[in-house]
Every structure is written in structure tokens, then in C-alpha cells.
Amino acid sequence: MNPAPLSGLYAPSLALITDLYQLTMAYGYWQQGLQDREAVFHLYFRKAPFQGGYAVAAGLALAVDWLENLRFSDDDLAYLGSLRGSKGTPLFPPDFLAYLRDLKFTCDVDAVPEGTVVFGNEPLLRIQGPLLQAQLLETALLTLVNFQTLIATKAARIREAAGPHDQILEFGLRRAQGFDGGLGASRAAYLGGADATSNVLAGQRYGLPVRGTHAHSWVMSFADEEQAFTAYAQAFPDDSVFLVDTYDTLDGVRHAIEVARKMRAQGHELGGIRLDSGDLAYLSREARALLDEAGFDKVRIVASNDLEENLITSLKQQGARIDTWGVGTQLVTAYNQAALGGVYKLAALRTADGTGWDFTIKLSEQIAKTSVPGILQVRRYLDEQGHPRADMLYNTAVPLPERLVLVDPNDATRRRPVRPGAPFRELLEPVFCQGRRVLDLPTLAESRALAQREVASLDPAVRRFLNPHTYPVGLELSLYDYRTQLILAKRPQRPA
Ligand SMILES: Nc1ncnc2c1ncn2[C@@H]1O[C@H](COP(=O)(O)OP(=O)(O)OP(=O)(O)O)[C@@H](O)[C@H]1O
Ligand SMILES: O=P(O)(O)OC[C@H]1O[C@H](OP(=O)(O)OP(=O)(O)O)[C@H](O)[C@@H]1O
Ligand SMILES: O=C(O)c1cccnc1
Ligand SMILES: [Mg+2]
Known about the structure:
Blueprint: H1 20-32, E1 38-44, E2 55-56, H2 60-68, H3 74-82, H4 94-102, E3 108-111, E4 117-118, E5 125-130, H5 131-136, H6 138-162, E6 167-170, H7 178-192, E7 196-197, H8 200-206, H9 216-220, H10 225-235, E8 241-243, H11 249-265, E9 272-275, H12 280-293, E10 300-304, H13 309-317, E11 324-327, H14 329-332, E12 343-350, E13 357-359, E14 376-382, E15 388-395, E16 405-407, E17 415-417, E18 424-426, E19 429-433, E20 436-437, H15 444-456, H16 460-463, E21 473-476, H17 477-490
Parallel strand pairs: 6-7, 6-11, 8-9, 9-10, 10-11, 15-21
Antiparallel strand pairs: 1-5, 1-12, 2-4, 3-5, 3-19, 12-13, 14-15, 14-18, 16-17, 16-21, 19-20
Helix pairs in contact: 2-6, 3-4, 6-7, 6-13, 7-15, 10-11, 11-12
The chain binds adenosine-5'-triphosphate, 1-O-pyrophosphono-5-O-phosphono-alpha-D-ribofuranose, nicotinic acid and magnesium ion.
């Protein structure tokens, strides 16, 4: 048995986690002798999720793990060999399956580190290598990066609402899109800013802190609340959080205080109480007053019940005294945006003689959906404090002009010259070089810390939830001009 892959629950081989068309194209390329033509693809999304101003890049470590374990097992090949076309003939001939069996991953992969703040049209991943291989990766890379980035971004927004000092507990497994959805969501939620998860498998697999309280059924299993709390405190004398709203919330708080007094007499402190219904602003204020009056000002107040970033913001504005937010459904399902629309587009192909590049473009009726040709890098310009000011996409395969100008790809009249000598950093870093890993990945906790620094470095206007300011992402002028020429060359010029 292979070690359990980071990226999936079920299969010992995950080579078939793909859309059929990746394999039919692979066969076609192989048949045409195009399998080794060098190609460059970019993985990017066009619009930040949740009508927000940014996204937190996530999923790279899962993608690396998937890539490192990528091979077609005998079972995979037998299954592919069993597939038939409409005339009943095999879809894939044995010599192609033999080619897949011996296929070695030899691509270059450059990627934006997990936790980095990213914007529309910026490549999160750049894959350069043999056409057949680079194409084959599309679906799995999108599956991993889209969902991880979506949930990490949702968690970052919840962190924004909760503020830097409150705790955020992710409680969503029961509402997740299946086991793997729950597992991945717990990982991404932590990366984006949650402090812990109730999901025990995610704790084991990703080393996340696991936390929790107890359910209403615990209280209902005893004659009364005091007995229930006393029994829980016996089991966990230093790790108890009592759910106080089974019958009457404020009576529940009084019962919790009674038990907390007895615990204190025995040298133990109650950790917290949890509110799971009713007016959370009012009840948390009342509960805080009762607890403080009784000398329990360190007892935390956890709230849960369909929480999300706007509700948390509102509760704070109402003076709620909640310091720990249990967030489930809305976080792990990215409730108000079902998916991030990340795409994977071909941007360069080696010329047939192998010496130069053909830069490629996908046209669209909407200019915003037209792809960007080239072998792209993202350069992030910083102000004196090191805060991001503007990002520039440029083609690394052609020399950069002396004077740099950023052009808004959706409105060419919006341009910004780059101040000479302006500090910058480049977002894509080498992860694989010809199939060999060249980067040690940070730990998840390090990526989480990066995400917090990254979001904090953004202008609050870009971070706000309602109509956020658009962070400037421009094409370097010569790339913009080249792309315009390519659009004109590819688009049929019909007479009026
Ligand atoms: N002060 C508040 N301001 C705005 N929304 C609140 C406030 N207090 C609670 N809420 C939210 O209002 C919604 C109330 O939902 P609902 O009516 O289902 O809860 P409930 O009846 O209190 O709880 P339950 O059905 O679990 O007993 C929840 O999403 C909750 O988070
Ligand atoms: O509300 P979420 O953000 O999804 O957080 C998780 C929810 O799961 C639990 O109860 P559950 O919803 O199962 O039962 P309930 O009807 O008593 O709330 C918990 O008490 C929270 O309410
Ligand atoms: O530990 C908790 O309080 C918890 C866990 C999962 C879902 N709701 C609450
Ligand atoms: Mg509920």
C-alpha cells in the first residue's frame, strides 16, 4: 500500500483524477508525434471570489504531492485499455498504454507560494514541459488549486472580520462536500486564518490543531445542565467548554458558573462557554457580564450558528462579546460562491525547429476572458513600507524594455509608468526543474503566517467586503501591444 497521499482519501493511484479529454488529447499528441513539443501553460483565475478584492493562493503543497506520486498503475492502464469507442474498438491502443506506463514527469513548475495574496489574471502556477505531460496535468491542478484557494480566501475574510486576536474554529465537516471536501476545506481554512479544526482526520493528516466543545445531546443525556457540565468537567477538568443554550441560555450560563466555581475549588479553570442560538450579540454581552461578575473574566465566549464574515462584522458592531468564532457550513462550502473559476491556458509553444517560441492566445468575445500569451512572471511593486502597490505581468521570454509601463488589460487607457528603481518581488518561484523538485515547501503553519502578513499588507480599501477597491494588475506595455497584435492577427476581419 502506498503512503496515503496528501491530496486524496481513496485511491492508491490518482493518475485517473482527470477529465477523459486530457487522455484523448494525450493519445492524439502522441500519435501526431507532438508529445514532446515544449509547451507553457498558466493556471489563473479571472476574478477574485466573493466579490472581494483579493484571493489567498493555496493548494500548491497538494499539487506537489500529487505530481510527485503521479504514475499510471497497472490497474489504471487496464481500465484505460478497457475503454471502448462508439464502434466498440479500444479508445487507447496497447502501445500508447505502454507509453503511459513508462511516462516520467519532466516538467518545470513555477508557482506562487501558498499564502500569497493574488489577483485576477495572475498565474498561480506556470507549467513548462512536453506538451502531452503539461496538458495532462490540467484538471487535477485546477481541482486542487481552485478549491484550496477558494476556501483559504473565505477563511481570510472571516479572519478579517474577527480581527487578529479572536480565535476561529472551523466546525464544517458535517456540512462539507463529502469526505475529501471536508478534509481539504479544513486544511485551506487553517491556511487562510482559522486557528483550529474539529476535523480529526485533518488534524492527523495535516498536523492542524484540533479543538471542540460538546453537543446539545450531551446536556440532554443528563438529568439537568449542572450534572451534564459537572460530568464533562470530570472528563476534561482543564479543557472544558460548556454549551449553554440547550434550554435557556442565560440560565445555562449561571449553571456553567456554578460548575466553574466547583472546578476552581479543585484547582481547575473553565475554558469557555458556547452560544449556538438566539441573539448572539445580546446573549454574549449578558453572558460576559455574568461571568465577569462571578470572577470568571478569563472564561471565553464561543459562538456558532451559521456564522460568516458579514454576520461576524455585524455582531462586532453590535458590541457582541464573542472572542471565539465556530464557523462551519459557510466556510467549508464557500457558501456564497460555489467555485473559484480558475483556468489553465496554453500560452507558448516551441516553434517546429525548436529554436524559438510561438506565443499562443485564446480569443473571447469578452476581452477580460482573452488569455495572455508568453512565458509569464508576476512582478509585485512595493511602496517604501513594503506594501504592494501594483502588479505587472510580463513575458520572460523577451527582453524587458528600459522604461516600464503597466497597462490595464481591460482598459488600455489606464496606464501607470513604473518609477525607476521601484522595489519589487517576483511571485512565481521554481518548484520543479525538469521533473525534479527544487523547492522545500514551507510548513502549513508557515504558509498560514505568510497569509496573515500578506492580507495585512494590503490597503484596507482592497480588503473591505463591500465594493472593494480594485488592486492594479497591469500588462507590461510591450506585452500588451504584442497581445493586441496577436488578437488582430487571429480574429477574422470581416468587412462592414
Ligand atoms: N445579533 C444578531 N445580529 C444578526 N444576526 C444574528 C444575531 N444573533 C444571531 N444571529 C444570526 O441569526 C441567525 C438565527 O438563525 P436561527 O433563527 O436559525 O437561529 P436560532 O433559532 O437562534 O437557533 P436554533 O435554530 O439553532 O435554535 C443565525 O445565522 C445567527 O448567527
Ligand atoms: O452553523 P455552522 O457554521 O455550520 O457550525 C456548525 C454547527 O454544527 C453544530 O450544530 P448543528 O448545525 O449540527 O445543529 P443545530 O441545528 O443545533 O445548530 C454546531 O452547534 C453549529 O451550529
Ligand atoms: O466542537 C464543537 O463545538 C462543534 C464541532 C462540530 C460542529 N459544531 C460544533
Ligand atoms: Mg446549526
